[in-house]
């Protein structure tokens, strides 16, 4: 039988990689707590309509990349390709639309059927945040500031740049959309096949195209800034002022767009030059119609998501903390007492390894390789006096310690 491997485009989180994952989540929880965000978890699979409606039937994710299937009851289910739609569905399903704002973060595996490559998997992991009920540019700036603080907590502040754009309100967006249709219609024969379809259904998505023939037409395409009304310009000005007050630096990038109609005003990306073509580390924006798509009222929100694998590849993490205590009993009677001591030390929050296999030389070799700071020896004579022999492995010093004082001794050292 051939050796079994994980499915193509997936990977196991083990050892150092799992430690990096846990570190990212731990740092995120610390930052999000300071901003008043709470953690939600939604199912890994949802009703297919959750994503078909939220991502748009013509998007590449829906048309080409979703893992969708019929269950035994004939219902169409989809492994979640992203987290925002599921959070909005959960808000409506749990009748929380009248309890606003809801400040939420999430993390976990997402699934997209695409060609695996460096930094891109079919099962990947995301961490994201949603500020639901976010009225006005102040909340946008605050949510972006939280993203910056999160990235800084991972040591990435000097490796990333915040790029920022405005999509304006619905009126401004409609005017821009009409201008884009007029412009790209003149070059329809030069567009890729996918973008010819987008021109009729969602012309904004042409600006996201990866096809070289489409990219060559973008230089002269109408810019959104030329179509902003007074309300949108005021929102844009206030957002930038608030970001400055939060000490968040940024560069303006008019090519950052979101292809769906419910996105509005703020769009942003934290990018890096250290990941080659996969330069976006964290991305987000304001949306005002997604919750309505899930059957709820129209509620404004802003959110962002980051790929954990990409964050992990950028990080420099300190060597795993080793330390701890190794307990080495000598004989069967000593083993039973050693088990009791081990349990007592662990309950006190002390890392303990119980070393019983092999002769003393082999056991000590394992202890030294483990990086333990102390070794505790327990023999028959020690049992009669209820003491242990405590050796400091770094200082190579050994002393006798009563068992009753062992926990306090380790707390001191």
TrEMBL record:
Cellular component, GO, one term: cytoplasm
Main location: cytoplasm
Organism: Aristophania vespae
HAMAP family documented for this protein: His_tRNA_synth
Keyword Protein biosynthesis recorded: yes
Gene3D superfamilies documented for this protein: Anticodon-binding domain, Bira Bifunctional Protein, Domain 2
One GO BP annotation of this record: histidyl-tRNA aminoacylation
Keywords noted in UniProt: Aminoacyl-tRNA synthetase, ATP-binding, Cytoplasm, Ligase, Nucleotide-binding, Protein biosynthesis
Domain of life: Bacteria
Assembly: Homodimer.
Reactions performed catalytically: tRNA(His) + L-histidine + ATP = L-histidyl-tRNA(His) + AMP + diphosphate + H(+)
Record's subcellular location: Cytoplasm
Protein family per UniProt: Belongs to the class-II aminoacyl-tRNA synthetase family.
Keyword Zinc: no
Any one GO molecular-function label of the UniProt entry: ATP binding
Binding residue positions for L-histidine: 82-84, 112, 126, 130, 258, 262-263
EC numbers on record: 6.1.1.21
InterPro entries membership: aa-tRNA-synth_II, aa-tRNA-synth_II/BPL/LPL, Anticodon-bd, Anticodon-bd_dom_sf, His-tRNA-ligase, HisRS-like_core, HisRS/HisZ, HisRS_anticodon
Pfam families from the UniProt entry: HGTP_anticodon, tRNA-synt_His
Broad enzyme group: ligase
Protein name (record): Histidine--tRNA ligase
Domain named Aminoacyl-transfer RNA synthetases class-II family profile: residues: 8-329
Gene of this entry: hisS
């Amino acid at each position: 039988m051939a050796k079994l491997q994980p499915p193509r485009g997936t990977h196991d989180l083990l050892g150092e990689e799992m430690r990096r994952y846990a570190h990212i989540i731990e740092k995120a929880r610390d930052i999000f707590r300071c901003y008043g965000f709470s953690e939600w978890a939604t199912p890994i699979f949802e009703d297919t309509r959750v994503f078909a409606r939220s991502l748009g039937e013509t998007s590449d994710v829906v048309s080409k990349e979703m893992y969708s299937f019929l269950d035994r009851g004939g219902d169409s289910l989809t492994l979640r390709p992203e987290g925002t739609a599921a959070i909005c569905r959960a808000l409506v399903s749990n009748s929380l639309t009248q309890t606003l704002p809801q400040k939420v973060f999430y993390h976990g595996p997402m699934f997209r059927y695409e060609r695996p490559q460096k930094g891109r998997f079919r099962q990947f992991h995301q961490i994201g945040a949603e500020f639901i009920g976010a009225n006005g540019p102040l909340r946008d700036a605050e949510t972006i500031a939280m993203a910056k603080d999160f990235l800084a907590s991972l040591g990435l502040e000097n490796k990333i740049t915040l790029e920022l754009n405005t999509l304006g309100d619905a009126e401004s967006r409609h005017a821009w959309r009409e201008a884009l249709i007029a412009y790209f219609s003149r070059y329809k024969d030069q567009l890729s096949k996918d973008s010819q379809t987008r021109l009729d259904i969602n012309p904004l998505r042409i600006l996201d195209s990866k096809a070289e023939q489409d990219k060559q037409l973008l230089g002269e395409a109408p810019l959104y800034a030329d179509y902003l009304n007074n309300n949108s310009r005021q929102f844009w000005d206030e957002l930038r002022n608030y970001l400055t007050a939060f000490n968040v630096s940024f560069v303006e990038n008019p090519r950052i767009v979101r292809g769906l109609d419910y996105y509005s005003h703020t769009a942003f990306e934290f990018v890096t030059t250290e990941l080659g073509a996969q330069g976006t580390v964290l991305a987000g924006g304001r949306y005002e119609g997604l919750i309505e798509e899930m059957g709820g009222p129209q509620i404004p929100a802003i959110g962002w998501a980051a790929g954990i694998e990409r964050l992990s590849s950028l990080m420099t993490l300190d060597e795993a903390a080793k330390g701890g205590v190794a307990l080495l009993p000598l004989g069967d009677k000593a083993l039973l007492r050693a088990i009791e001591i081990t349990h007592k030390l662990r309950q006190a929050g002390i890392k303990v390894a119980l070393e019983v296999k092999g002769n003393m030389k082999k056991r000590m070799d394992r202890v030294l390789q483990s990086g333990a700071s102390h070794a505790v020896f327990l023999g028959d004579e020690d049992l009669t006096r209820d003491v242990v022999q405590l050796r400091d492995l770094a200082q190579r010093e050994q002393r006798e310690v009563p068992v009753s004082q062992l926990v306090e001794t380790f707390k001191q050292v």
